[in-house]
C-alpha cells in the first residue's frame, strides 16, 4: 500500500509539473521568465526564450510572451503647427517591432503584464512620433509640407523617432502620413489665397504666352514677306527671260519667212475678231486688213 501511495504521489507531481512546469513559445513569439519579480538570467544576461518547449518552476515563475511580428499603431488625428503659425490636421500610422525584449519589458512594463507593456509602448511611441512631427512641420510652410517629396519627409521622421525610442527596446520600421488637411475654420481663407495665387500665376503665363505669340507671328510675317518678294523677283526674272525668248523666236521666224509670218499674224487677227457672230466691223474692202481674202 505504501508503494502504491508513493507511485500515486509521483504521478500527481508529474501531472502538476507537466501542466504548470512546462510552457510553449510559438514561432511568432519570444518569452521572458520572471521569478519572484526578477527576470531569469544566463551569464548576467536576461534569458530570452526562443520558440519551443521550456521548463519553469510551478507557482513561482511567471512567463511573459512578446510578439515578434511587425506592429502597426494608428495615431489619432493631431493638430500640427507650421512655421507660418497655421494649423494642419494630420493622420498617420507607425510600423514598429520589439528589438530588445528585456529592455522593452523593463522600460515599458515592469508589472509582469506584457499587454500593459504593449499599451504603454504604443502610447509612448505615438507621443514621440507626434513630437517629431511637430518639430519637422514647425520648420516648413504649408506649401512645403504639401508639395515637398513626401518620402524624404517620412524617412526623416522615421529616423528621428527611431533614435528617440531605441532606448525602450523598440525599432521603428516605417512612419506614414495618410492625410494632411486644414482645419475647417482656416481652410476657406487658405484656399482663397491659393486660388488668387494660381490666378496670378496663370495670368503671368498667359501674358508671357501672348508676348511669345506676337513675336512668333511677327517673325513669320517678316519671313512671309521675304519669301513673297523673292518669289516675285524670281517670277519676274523668269517672265522676262520667257518674253525675251518669245521675241527672239518671233524675230527668227520673221527673218526666215516674212510673208508667212504676216499671213500667220493675219489669221490670228481674223480668229480673234470673228469669234462672235454679233461682232460688227466696218472696213473698206480694199483695206490692208483683208489683203489675204482676195488672193488665190
Give an overview in words.
There is one protein chain. The longest helix has 73 residues, at 184-256. With 296 residues, the chain is an alpha+beta fold. Helices cover 55% and strands 20% of the residues. The protein folds into 4 domains: 2-67, no CATH class; 71-181, Band 7 domain (Tetrahydropterin Synthase, Chain A), CATH 3.30.479.30; 198-255; 257-290, no CATH class. The mean pLDDT is 79.
What tags apply to this protein structure?
296 residues; alpha+beta; Tetrahydropterin Synthase, Chain A; four-stranded antiparallel beta sheet; three-stranded antiparallel beta sheet; 7 helices; 55% helix; rod-shaped
Concise description?
The protein has four domains: 2-67, no CATH class; 71-181, Tetrahydropterin Synthase, Chain A (2-Layer Sandwich), CATH 3.30.479.30; 198-255; 257-290, no CATH class. 55% of the residues lie in helices and 20% in strands. It has helices spanning 2-21, 101-109, 114-137, 142-147, 150-165, 184-256, 258-273, and strands at residues 22-25, 29-35, 38-39, 41-42, 45-46, 52-55, 61-67, 71-74, 78-81, 87-98, 170-181.
